[in-house]
Specification:
Largest sheet: 4 strands, antiparallel
Oligomer: single chain
Number of helices: 13
Shape: globular
Number of strands: 16
Strand content: 15-25%
Bound molecules: zinc ion
Order of helices and strands: HEEEEHEEEHEEHHHHHHHHEEHEEEEHE
Radius of gyration: 25 Å
């Protein structure tokens, strides 16, 4: 790791890369008086607010198909999420192989959509200060470059993380409890801003489309039939008239169960450590990710739904490479599908071969 370097001109930066040919390039999110000085002498001037949304933090149904781990001690291996201890020898160190799967990257995108909504609607950041990037691997980065965020310390950034996760909403549950004791009719009144609005609309959507199983899955066991039969009325009463306690057989506990479920759905699953770190290093836009050969690449916020990382972040567009593949799931680069492979020698377009090699799943066949 080469650190504490700076460049004031692009040409200097490029010759810096030429000196060491790094596999990965990062820059600080912080601004310093003396970027090349030791950490304690740099003179911290502020930092951008950064978010990392990575499939590693989001449970998906497909990790069993494409993620593998091997115990470093006894070499026992398995699929899916890496265990804490090896089931055979109790070892604690593993070699994990993850995969930049499209479904996993899409789930990271869904979390990014929620984050951007919160940043723009609740915090009021202008879209010209919010930058969205594909990370080059299994997720997205969001950088807020606004003078208002630069001086924020780690505690203030922690508050933002909590808000994005909806963590402070516990207070909201306590408030419900207090009002209930006093017998208030408006025990569950929600206003029309921020998380209140998000929960209100989310509960309405949940109710209107709820099946018997949906209600059971959030823990509602009583009055299920009554709720299903009257869901339009219930949704209208609480959303339009705020008459929470007036629905027969549906108490505050029921509302809380739905509210907790909605909170889980609406909160954005960001990497909390990245956002609270005021000295964070983050991958440089336009450089290659050392685990995929794909580029970290910026795109307009409005393109999030149609941005295609497996086409638009591809760096190597020419030639082919002959590789022997140990194992790989089916994957796509551009318009072409590849794999699945198991102990096979294949000639692949460079981008596909680079991905497999960097993922430790293939080696070049020397001819
Ligand atoms: Zn083991
Ligand atoms: Zn997946």
């Amino acid at each position: 790791m080469i650190r504490h370097r700076s460049a004031t001109k692009i040409s200097n930066l490029i010759s810096l890369f030429g000196e060491s040919v790094p596999s990965d390039v990062y820059h600080s999110c912080a601004y310093y008086e003396n970027p090349e000085a030791d950490m304690d002498k740099k003179g911290w001037l502020g930092a951008d607010l950064v978010f990392d949304i990575d499939a590693d933090h989001i449970p998906t149904s497909c990790d069993k198909i494409h993620d593998e781990w091997t115990c470093g001690k006894c070499l026992f291996s398995g699929k899916g999420v890496t265990p804490e201890t090896c089931p055979v020898c109790g070892g604690l160190k593993f070699k994990a192989k993850s995969w930049p799967c499209e479904r996993c990257v899409d789930s990271a995108r869904d979390e990014t959509v929620k984050l951007l909504d919160i940043l723009e609607k609740d915090f009021g950041f202008s879209s010209k200060h919010v930058h969205v990037f594909f990370s080059g691997h299994r997720g997205y980065h969001v950088h807020v470059e606004d003078e208002a965020v630069k001086p924020l310390d780690a505690m203030a950034r922690r508050e933002i993380v909590d808000y994005v996760y909806g963590s402070g909403l516990l207070g909201f549950e306590e408030r419900v409890g207090e009002k209930r004791k006093k017998g208030s009719e408006r025990a569950f009144s929600l206003h029309d801003f921020g998380w209140n609005k998000r929960i209100k609309l989310g509960m309405q959507n949940f109710l209107l489309s709820a099946t018997r199983e949906d209600l059971r899955s959030v823990g509602i066991k009583q009055n299920v039939e009554a709720i299903l039969q009257n869901k339009e009325t219930i949704a209208k009463r609480y959303i339009e008239e705020n008459r929470w306690s007036n629905v027969k057989g549906v108490g505050t506990e029921t509302w809380l169960k739905i509210a907790r479920h909605v909170k889980e759905l609406e909160s954005a699953k960001i990497d909390t450590v990245v956002t609270t770190d005021i000295h964070r290093l983050i991958r440089m836009n336009g450089t290659l990710h050392g685990k995929t050969g794909l580029k970290k690449i910026e795109f307009p916020v409005g393109r999030l739904s149609d941005f295609d990382p497996f086409r638009e972040a591809v760096a190597f567009k020419e030639g082919t490479v002959k590789v022997v593949v140990s194992s790989a799931p089916e994957f796509r680069i551009g318009e072409s599908m590849f794999g699945p492979y198991k102990n096979q020698t294949v000639e692949l377009p460079t981008a596909a071969a680079v991905l497999l090699i960097l993922k430790g799943r293939a080696e070049v066949v020397e001819e």
